[in-house]
Each structure stands twice: as structure tokens, then as C-alpha cells.
Amino acid sequence: MLTRIDHIGIACFDLDRTVEFYRATYGFEVFHTEVNEEQGVREAMLKINGTSDGGASYLQLLEPTREDSAVGKWLAKNGEGVHHIAFGTADVDGDARAIGDKGVRVLYDEPRRGSMGSRITFLHPKDCHGVLTELVTSAPRPEAEH
Ligand code: V0V
Ligand code: CO
Questions:
Q1: Which CATH number fits domain 2-137: 3.30.365.10, 2.40.240.10, 3.40.50.150, 3.10.180.10?
Q2: Annotated domain spans of the chain
Q3: Using an 8 Å Cβ cutoff, are 9 and 62 in contact?
Q4: Ligand 2 center to residue 102 CA distance, Å?
Q5: Separation of CA 100 from chain center
Q6: At residue 34, what are phi and psi to the nearest 5 degrees?
Q7: 1-29: per-residue pLDDT in tens?
Q8: Residue to substitute in 10, 39, 58 for testing ligand 1 pocket (most ligand atoms within 8 angstroms of CB)
């Protein structure tokens, strides 16, 4: 069951400048940063609400590490903006299977590694009314670390 919005993924050209915008404008601080080479992103998670029990909501700022990555290609075509939404679930495997059975393309056979040790998969935007949709099972108790 999808129980919350885990994060909204926002593509940007310059992660440091975008982080500074969110800090200066709204007061959001960086909770976590990492590079995910498989996904071709450098990312910053800004925690919006939650209790550090795995049930939080974040903004995920994404800068591509290479031009041919998903975010790199998307930025070249669209410029900066909202790239995907991510729903949180306790059971990404089961939910991905159930959604796939409804005829929506699930992009990975098995969930892959996401931010902060989470397990993630994606649904094809063309099957979701134009919205790239991610399903996330958080790691238990993700700790802040920069
Ligand atoms: C592409 N399209 C999108 C889209 N990306 N539509 C809405 N939102 C997006 N983000 C549209 C695009 O405009 C095309 O439509 C069509 O899909 C095919 O796109 P393409 O440019 O030819 O690109 P593809 O087909 O090579 O790749 C698109 C997909 C790719 C969605 C398959 O981006 C992908 O595998 N995404 C999942 C992985 C990902 O996004 N990783 C980065 C975040 P027209 O022009 O034909 O109408 S990593 C992350 O979130 C992490 C680590 C985390 O949360 O922990
Ligand atoms: Co994401």
C-alpha cells in the first residue's frame, strides 16, 4: 500500500546553487547528500516533515553526473523543474508487482538502490499520465549524514 509522498524529485543544473536557494528562500536544510553512480545523479535530500522513522517526506534535488543519464537527458530537453514524484510503501516489491499486473510498465525487474539505503523502482511516465513515478521503501531509520 502506498501510504505517503516520500519525495518530489527536482532536476537542476547546479546542485549547490539550488540547495542555497531552498535554504535562503524557505529555510530548508540539507538532511543528506550522496552520489548514485548507477542512476547518474548527485543529490541532496531536504527533509520537509517526518520523524526519522522512515516515514518522512523530502525534496530530492538532482544534478546529473553525466549527460546520458535520465536526469541529464531530461534537463537537456526540458530545463530545470519537477522530474518525478515518489510514493512511500512498506513493500515496494509487492506494490510494484500489483501495479505491473494492472498494465503499467515497471522499469526494473527488481528494485534498485535509492537514496539513504532505500529500495526503489519506477513506473513509466507514458503509462502514468505524463508523471515519472517512483516507489520507495525506506531503509529503517535513515540517519542524517552529509
Ligand atoms: C522522460 N519522459 C518523461 C520523463 N522523462 N516524462 C515525464 N517525466 C519525466 N521525468 C518522456 C519523454 O518526454 C519522452 O516523451 C518519453 O518519456 C521518452 O523519454 P526519452 O527522453 O526518450 O528518455 P528514455 O526513454 O531514454 O528514458 C525515460 C525513462 C528514464 C523514464 C525510461 O528517464 C528512466 O529510466 N527513469 C528512471 C530512472 C531515473 O529517472 N533516475 C533519476 C532519479 P515523448 O517526447 O516521446 O512524448 S534517481 C532517484 O530518484 C533516486 C536515486 C532516489 O529517489 O533515491
Ligand atoms: Co527519486
A1: 3.10.180.10
A2: 2-137
A3: yes
A4: 22
A5: 20
A6: -160, 165
A7: 999 999 999 999 999 999 999 999 999 99
A8: 39
Query: Could you read off the pLDDT of 31-63 as tens digits, one per residue?
Result: 999 999 999 999 999 999 876 555 789 999 999
Q: Is the pTM above the cut of 0.90? A: yes
How far apart CA 138 and CA 142 sit, in angstroms, is: 7
User: Grid coordinates standing for 82?
Assistant: 519537477
Q: Could you tell me the three cell numbers for 83? A: 522530474
Nearest CA to 61 out of 33, 89, 87 is that of 33
Tracing cell 527536482 back to the chain, one arrives at 10
Q: Residue type at 50? A: G
Q: Is 65 exposed, middle or buried (0-12, 13-18, 19+ CB in 10 A)?
A: middle
- Of the two residues 120 and 56, the one the predictor is more confident about is 120
Q: Is 71 in the pocket of ligand 1 (CB under 6 A)?
A: yes
